[in-house]
Amino acid sequence: MALIQTDNKVTVGKIERVKTGIKGLDELLSGGIPKESITLVSGPPGSGKSIFCYQFIAQGAEDGKRCLYLTLDKKIEGLLLQASELGIHFESAIQTGQVKFVFLNINKKLIYESMINEILSGNYDRVVLDSITPLSEMPIYVNNPEFSTESNTIDHDEISTGNFPVRRLHLHYIMSALETAKCTAVVTSELPSGSTSYSRDGLSEFLADGVIILSLDPTMDRRKLAVMKMRSTKHTLKPQNIEIGKGGMQII
Ligand SMILES: Nc1ncnc2c1ncn2[C@@H]1O[C@H](COP(=O)(O)OP(=O)(O)OP(=O)(O)O)[C@@H](O)[C@H]1O
Ligand SMILES: [Mg+2]
After folding, report:
1. Which ligand has the minimum distance to the alpha carbon of residue 218?
2. Is 46 in the pocket of ligand 1 (CB under 6 A)?
3. Mean per-residue pLDDT for 37-59?
4. Does the C-beta of 45 come closer than 6 Å to ligand 1?
5. Is 245 helix (H, G, I), strand (E, B) or coil?
6. How many whole angstroms separate alpha carbon 41 and alpha carbon 205?
7. 231 C-alpha to center of ligand 2: Å?
8. How far apart, in whole angstroms, are the C-alpha atoms of residue 83 and residue 151?
9. How much is the pLDDT for 145?
10. Has residue 167 got a pLDDT over 80?
11. In the chain, which ranges are E strands?
């Protein structure tokens, strides 16, 4: 909660909120997600995680904010095309430098450094990481003096087995960069179909300030969105019906 100091008086300030750009969702969240928070958006393939992110970035651009979209998909043009099919156009905001799409190559050893340099150097208001799952599962190679002391303590056998402490380290590294950047972030996590977990890694949901679950109900031909956690926000846990069409997703 923001503390505002005026004339030696400390008052508890009103939480500043950031609009998601998703019709019906901001109303469920008392106006939006808290500014400078990290929200995890999890769901199975095709549940709308990337579309959620397009709308979050498009809303940021509309509000005149600097936005970064980190993707593990090397076909950025394909993403832009998918967005434009939905009526979400980024081209002019990309040209003016207000929105930047960056491909993260998970085959590069120093992926963490390039990602974190980008997050910290761009003075972004909104950052999307789509998705955190492959990053949380890969070995760590960092060329950072602060981090290397810590990395010396890692038992490297644990990396190959994907043991808990190493995954936690990856996720802490990413989440703390987002916190340091003082941006409002959305991070996606891929869930296997039918999963009841909140993330693939089983840890991001504890590190994030908010958790939104997207799900599919093929039998009923329905899509749903549920807010499971949101810092400083009173909200329903009830899954909401959503639809995807022109403009992206909306709560119906
Ligand atoms: N123009 C459109 N009109 C209606 N529905 C669409 C449109 N474009 C995509 N969709 C729906 O959205 C789904 C894809 O959404 P999205 O790419 O956001 O999913 P995702 O959760 O990111 O999936 P993945 O885990 O594979 O990345 C498609 O499978 C389709 O059902
Ligand atoms: Mg996606």
Report:
1. 1
2. yes
3. 98
4. yes
5. strand
6. 9
7. 25
8. 39
9. 52
10. no
11. 3-6, 9-12, 17-18, 33-34, 38-43, 67-71, 99-103, 126-130, 184-190, 210-217, 222-230, 240-245, 248-251
Nearest Cα residue to atom 16 of ligand 1: 48
Residue list, CB under 5 A from ion ligand 2 = 49-50
Q: Are the C-beta atoms of residues 62 and 18 closer than 8 Å to each other? A: no
Domain 3-251: homologous superfamily in CATH: P-loop containing nucleotide triphosphate hydrolases (3.40.50.300)
CA-nearest of 120, 55, 128 to 88 is 55
3-state SS assignment for residue 97 = coil
Q: What angle do CA 71, 170, 22 make, to 5 degrees?
A: 40
Domain boundaries, the chain: 3-251
Measured in angstroms, how far is the CA atom of residue 51 from the centroid of ligand 1?
A: 7
CA distance 52 to 37: 16
pLDDT digits (tens, 9 = 90+) for 182-203: 999 999 999 998 899 999 989 9
> The whole model's pTM is what?
0.88
